[in-house]
Amino acid sequence: MSTEKIAIGADHAGFEYKELLKKWLEKNGYSVKDFGTYSSDSADYPDFAHPVASGVEKKEFDLGVLICGSANGVAMTANKHQGIRAAICWKEELAELARTHNNANVLCIPARHVSIELAEKILDKFLHSAFEGGRHAKRVDKISC
Predict the structure, then answer these.
(1) Is 113 a catalytic residue?
(2) For position 39, what pLDDT does the model report?
(3) Choosing from 12, 50, 101, 136, which is the catalytic residue?
(4) Cβ(75)–Cβ(84) below 8 Å
(5) For the whole model, what pTM was predicted?
């Protein structure tokens, strides 16, 4: 059982995936805080991306998960936060590299471009990959402005 705390959020395009991934996380022992949206009614992705990013940035949560149609909007929003490294992942390998090489702390999933089964595998890979440090640490340290 994990003791990790995960912040999750989505706009209307990611609502269904958020609900399913939240259940998957809870079933796998993660503590989850849902920042919305709470329906499939049209919603603005920054309203959910900012609270998730803030929570991760303040270390109230270990990692964040954001979902929208393309993942671009939530990633752009989350990456405005100085302590956030949000990565758009549509393959398991990208999720692993985002964590191992870039120390990503927010996973952004494009709901309109991956199946829910693949989204679960991407999330699992993201959660079970660790930052390698070493030569990558020097690069990650150069990201912030």
Answers:
(1) no
(2) 97
(3) 101
(4) no
(5) 0.96
